[in-house]
Design goal:
The complex is a heterodimer. By secondary structure, chain A is an alpha/beta fold. In chain A, 41% of the residues lie in helices and 12% in strands. Chain A has a five-stranded parallel beta sheet with strand order 1-2-3-7-6, sandwiched between helices. A two-stranded antiparallel ribbon of chain A has the order 4-5. In chain A, helix 1 packs across helix 3 and helix 1 runs antiparallel to helix 9. In chain A, 50% of the residues are buried. In chain B, the strands form three sheets. Chain B has a seven-stranded mixed beta sheet, with helices on both faces. Chain B has a five-stranded mixed beta sheet with strand order 9-11-10-13-14, sandwiched between helices. A two-stranded antiparallel ribbon of chain B has the order 1-8. The longest helix of chain B has 14 residues. Classes of the chains: A alpha/beta, B alpha/beta. At the A-B interface, helix 4 and helix 5 of A face helix 4 and helix 6 of B.
């Protein structure tokens, strides 16, 4: 699919995110909007969603930053895993679309949301592929605040030890977490040096440029090391008043804000 | 005599030909006895180092990819340190994974309270969808692991460090939700699991010589627990006692009490670790210190 089409799809996904969070009256718009383009690039242009002879999906995906569920569900819906009309039931008592991902949802392999856990699971899946000599990649999307969890670095060491070059992880580097800037909250910086020191192949890209997202995946596939793609993104991307504002990490827009957001995204 | 961890190691070795089996450890292969599998099948033995949260996550990733997975570390680190991973990844995603925790309870001995997990049964029992099992000897360990291997969903299997008496022979069968009742006395019943079952059986022998006939129930399936066996023994025998190498809060004593309370209210006397941490010492000395002895059981009748 060409890039102008991907951009159009992203716009619709972002509208879905706003609709979902508005309807639910809660949820996480900021970090959903920041990772939308990465998800669209993966699901529309890169992932092979077919099953192999063992019944395993050829390319797997884990949303380690599970609070971006609105973006994940919207993309899963857009590629056919979830009926579109179900999206408006997000977080409702009679809905299967829980606040954070669960593998009871079609297309979701594992639950997530308690941060720091996805990369280890991705390692396990990548190890299974190595043991079975199976093709395909395991994609994992991490939050930048999330890497404050120690388990991420445990997983980085394991991936390095077992040379899991079939892992392609994205870091949604939007620089903000609930309590503010990640530099202020925990002093998280020099990400490329950190991952590089742990034996990973590091690329840094603009996470809203489809050209860069797509070519970084192509480059990762040539690597002999596990891959991390540090994607510079904007929290709340696409909605002016949500952009770069930590307060939109986990709250729903008012009716007025909702209308303004949809209007902006419809341009 | 054999430790249940050794029986675990032998079991893994015995199923190693199955190329779908993957065993994980966190730098404790010689202690958890997964080294027996490692030596024969090194490619399918994954050592993640001292990283138990990563251990559980990696194990789940392999299991979700169709592997038959056994993950091992000490009970303290499996149920304690990796609790969130066990809950939110293994259990919530209904992963077919066998979490085999060795060195449970104060039986750890000399290493002391930091390594003596007396809360794991309570912690694992409360996790939705988790099945909790604890074998009492060599044969039951192997048979229970075989059952777990073919059972869907997450399982926590509690194993011990020290040698325990042989109780079972090959004729016994085990199942999720099952138990075994030893004896048909009516003077009382001792409910137990794991290493304290053989202690209870020794007490049963001594008491019999004094004309007191009790039953011993091995509740090896801690969750789901065999409610029928508990109710039956409560109805048919006089005095009820529980004994376990675990806190009396949230262990089998509490589980049996819950069943009694809802079905056949009756007094139960609990033997176990009181609301405190363990103690360094030889396993035998520590068991003596906390009253995990046949003499203490006998004193209740």
């Amino acid at each position: 699919m060409d890039i102008s089409n991907l951009e159009e799809i992203s716009k619709n996904i972002r509208k879905d995110i706003i609709e979902m969070v508005y309807n639910a009256k809660s949820g996480h718009p900021g970090g959903s909007l920041s990772c939308t383009d990465i998800l669209v690039a993966l699901y529309y242009n890169k992932m092979n969603l077919n099953l192999d002879e063992k019944g395993q999906r050829i390319d797997k995906f884990i949303l380690s930053k599970g609070h971006a569920a609105p973006a994940y569900y919207a993309v899963l819906s857009s590629v056919g895993f979830i009926p579109h009309e179900d999206l408006k039931t997000l977080r409702k008592i009679d809905s299967y679309l829980e606040g954070h991902p669960t593998n009871k949802i079609n297309g979701v392999d594992v639950s997530s949301g308690s941060l720091g856990q996805g990369l280890s699971i991705a390692n396990g899946m990548a190890l299974a592929k190595k043991l079975d000599k199976s093709q395909g990649y395991v994609y994992c999307l991490l939050g930048d605040g999330e890497i404050e969890e120690g388990q991420i670095w445990e997983a980085c060491m394991t991936a390095n030890k077992y040379k899991l070059n079939n892992i392609i992880a994205f870091l949604d580097y939007n620089k903000l977490q609930i309590d503010g800037n990640i530099l202020d909250v925990k002093g998280v910086d020099k990400l490329d040096e950190k991952f590089s020191a742990f034996g990973w192949n590091v690329q840094t890209i603009n996470g809203h440029s489809f050209e860069e997202i797509l070519s970084s995946i192509d480059n990762a596939k040539l690597s002999s090391k596990p891959n991390i793609i540090i994607a510079n993104t904007v929290k709340g991307k696409g909605v002016s008043f949500m952009e770069n504002n930590a307060s939109w990490h986990g709250k729903a827009p008012s009716e007025e804000e909702y209308k303004k957001a949809i209007e902006e995204l419809s341009k | 005599m054999k430790s249940t961890r050794k029986a675990y190691g032998e079991f893994l070795e015995s199923i190693g030909e199955n190329k779908n089996v993957v065993v994980l450890d966190a730098d404790l292969a010689s202690a958890t006895k997964t080294n027996m599998f490692m030596e024969k099948y090194p490619k399918r033995h994954i050592d993640v180092g001292i990283a138990e949260q990563d251990l559980v996550g990696t194990a789940c990733g392999l299991a979700l990819s169709g592997k038959i997975v056994f993950a091992s570390t000490f009970a303290m680190f499996m149920a304690g340190r990796a609790y969130d991973q066990v809950r939110n990844t293994a259990a919530y995603s209904h992963v077919n994974v066998n979490l085999c925790a060795t060195h449970a309870g104060v039986m750890v001995g000399e290493d002391g309270p930091t390594h003596q997990c007396v809360e794991d049964v309570a912690l694992m029992n409360v996790v939705p969808d988790m099945k909790v099992l604890s074998p009492a000897d060599d044969i039951s360990t192997k048979k229970i692991l075989k059952v777990c291997m073919n059972e869907e969903g997450p399982k926590y299997i509690r194993l011990g460090r020290s040698d325990v008496d042989d109780i079972y022979d090959e004729t016994y069968e085990f199942k999720i939700g099952g138990s075994h009742i030893f004896g048909d006395g009516t003077d009382g019943t001792v409910f137990s699991y794991g290493p304290t079952v053989s202690i209870a059986l020794n007490a049963q022998k001594d008491l019999k010589e004094r004309g007191i006939n009790i039953r011993v129930v091995d509740l090896y399936s801690i969750k789901p627990v065999d409610k029928e066996a508990i109710i039956k023994c409560a109805k048919e025998t006089e005095k009820l006692v529980s004994i376990e190498d675990h806190s009396i809060i949230g262990g089998i004593g509490s589980i049996v009490a819950n069943v009694l309370c809802e079905n056949y209210p009756k007094k139960l006397e609990k033997i176990g670790i009181p609301d405190r941490f363990g103690k360094s010492g030889s396993a035998k000395a520590v068991y003596g210190y906390f009253g995990l002895t046949k003499e203490n059981i006998e004193s209740k009748f």
